[in-house]
Fold:
Amino acid sequence: MIGAWPPARDAAAQSARGPVHLGGCGRAAGPRRPPRRRAVPGRGRGRHAALHSRCADVAARAATGEGPVVLVGHSGAGALLPAVAAALPGRVRAALFVDALLPHPGRSWFDTAAPELREQLRSLAREGRLPPWHEWFPAGAVAGLLPDATVRERFLAEVPELPLAYFEERAPEVPDWSPARCGYVRLSEAYDREAGDAAALGWPVYREDADHLAMLTRPAAVAELLGRLVSAYTS
Structure:
């Protein structure tokens, strides 16, 4: 769920990828490291309690050391960044959102989704679990985004099933969350609304006409945009 992103000056950047698709987006934009086993919160026995907080705790534990960090959230991980920041008190220098949902405290993922998508996903669930993210779409859709077979296979190998409860659970309230140092990188038209909302909040917004998985298909371009934001907040 976490991959290191190139540090800028004295701040380490942590890339948080939502549990919806954990595949190696952060590794493409940053230095490679040996693959690790992925623990998906909610897997196994027991009740699916506080899944958002558990995902955030996993992300926070990846921020080793004691120095300042910059959080980078892609896709659904954007909604987790306030909880990740709360788990790293005093350390978060900035939070950057890459084609990502904005925080929606008190609302569930389903609350933010279009009704037709919500119903589609509920219809796909089996025994309380959703199939991997790429199986939500027509055959060939992901191949269109990731034409390189090697990259695609590596990405798909890391995409897990998820408990439906994650999408039904309300995101946690984080009273001390402050958007004073946030930025947004819009990669695809699907996130135009979020980019507009970020701009309305006064955040710097960079727009790249790419695709949702551009961290894999155009890693240098995405890294350059993130580098601008990181430098602005850590200089």
Observations:
- Residues 2-234 form a domain with the Rossmann fold fold (CATH 3.40.50.1820).
